[in-house]
Amino acid sequence: MANKRDYYEVLGVGKDASAEDIKKSYRKLARQYHPDVNKETDAESKFKEVKEAYDILSDDGKRSTYDRYGHVDPNQGMGGGGGGADFGGFGDIFDMFFGGNGGRRDPNAPQRGNDLQYTMTVEFKEAVFGKEVEITIPRTESCDNCHGSGAKPGTKPEACSTCHGSGQQEVVQNTPFGRMVNRRACTNCSGTGRIIRDKCGTCHGAGKVKKQRRIKVNIPAGVDDGAQIRMTGEGEGGTRGGPSGDLYIVIRVKPHDFFERENDDIYCEVPLTFVQAALGDEIEIPTLTEKVKLKVPAGTQTGTYFRLKGKGVPKLRGYGTGDQHVKVTIVTPTKLTDEQKELLRQFGGGSNGESASEQGEHHESIFERMKKAFRGE
Questions:
Q1: Model confidence at 30, in pLDDT bands (50, 70, 90)?
Q2: Is 0.70 topped by the overall pTM?
Q3: Residue by residue, what is the 3-state secondary structure of the chain?
Q4: I need a surface site. Which of 103, 130, 160, 169 has the fewest CB within 10 A?
């Protein structure tokens, strides 16, 4: 007894420590020295010492006796342990940390199904205005033949005779430091707690079957690239009567030839002739829904933006609509008469270093995209 350390010293607390302080210290040290985690040679002996100290100090009666007599037990057995101390595996520590059965889940309890993810590609305008589409997804569902039990109709699963339905086995080992009790998944029932003697002929005992399910999906107006739509209960089927998981649909939006989107606003590029920009004009602009007139003031410079209020994307959350921003680009003429060239030389126009052929190709592309937009493509 002379070599035993003071129990308060073992737990690192004072003699006036509260029951909560003692418990907190024990939790910390038990995690630190448990032999399943700590592989140091003296870890087992330290763990035993910590548990022995906690067994005494956590009990009001034993603590009172220890405070009076120390390690000398006047009653020959209450003093605090001996060579045959019984300490469990991690499951016993978890009983204290988390309560109940160590945080272990009942293997026969209903279990929620897994969530699924589906990537859907939609056209640019479908994302803007919304659409209802139908998709087909593969998923597991509860077997209709056995109603998810896995057993042949008219029979039912039996409790495992090895673990008595708990799904866990206890393995006891005697060591020089006491009796070690470890828990593991039952090898007879693979941790399910059930044995199916007569399996369902449809699902072969699994309780689930693979099916192709058609689902209608409502794409809301204003949805953007990368958005997710959650469909509750459309994921994998649950087990033993548990609820189904959810289906998450990830939206991918195809780019448009003429329009570009930034949040709820739409951007486009429109060509202007040199004369239109210099003298001003009224031009027709394609929008997502219609064609509108835009007045271009005289002296407009290339790269100028005009805003068409309310011609953008409907706001997904809230009221209102974004705007459309129109960028004008001056088209440099590529086929001029000698007289026109002379007039331009007198005016002092230039190409800013870009060849006429390069400019012509670029603006032909703009015109082509704009024609498609006018046709509603």
A1: confident
A2: no
A3: CCCCCCHHHHHCCCCCCCHHHHHHHHHHHHHHHCCCCCCCCCHHHHHHHHHHHHHHHCCHHHHHHHHHHCCCCCCCCCCCCCCCCEEECHHHHHHHHHCCCCCCCCCCCCECCCCEEEEEEECHHHHHHCEEEEEEEEEEEECCCCCCCCECCCCCCEECCCCCCCCEEEEEEEECCEEEEEEEECCCCCCCCEECCCECCCCCCCCEEEEEEEEEEEECCCCCCCCEEEECCCCCCCECCCCCCCEEEEEEECCCCCCEEECCEEEEEEEEEHHHHHHCEEEEEECCCCEEEEEECCCCCCCCEEEECCCCCECCCCCCECCEEEEEEEECCCCCCHHHHHHHHHHCCCCCCCCHHHHHHHHHHHHHHHHHHHCCC
A4: 103
